[in-house]
Amino acid sequence: MSQSNDKAAGVDNTFRRKFDREEFLQRAREREEKEKDDGRSKSKSKGPPVQRQPLKHRDYEVDLESRLGKTQVVTPIAPLSQQAGYFCSVCECVVKDSANYLDHINGKKHQRALGMSMRSERATLDQVRQRFEVLKKRKTPGSFSEQDLDERILKQQQEEEEIKRQRRERKKEKKKEKAVVEEPEIDTEVAAMMGFGGFGSSKK
Asked: Is the pTM here over 0.70, yes or no?
């Protein structure tokens, strides 16, 4: 018994890691407190969700041609509104061409800056009816009838007939010009020497 105890006491256990229970409990408490503080700061910064307005159509005309064909001196230190391209005053950025500018003002970032979401408001039945009434009033009464349709068809047919007639006349003129060019010119002296005076009738 004494020999086995001596062997066990002589085993080297220094390579094993020794855990300090109190130290790790302290670390766990600090980590939990830090997570709580981060959660509070995130909840404060996040705030309540923002309710954005539904998407609306523009009540102004997009200006794409006012600076077309004009020469402008651009410097690196010039403000954004005076640099080359299309300036967006809402997002304070410059877009180089008109296609990208339209994509920008119709995009999500620009609409959010205006306080709108990308969802359009669902129209009710009354709104649809009112829209139809507005469109009916905009259309002048008696602006179109079956008689107008018949007159348009007749006028179109007459124009087509006139175009065909002009084509036929041009073809006839071309044929005549071609026949005149291809007909050989006969010298009267050469014809008399060869024994024939012409292609007319020999009857007297």
From this structure: no
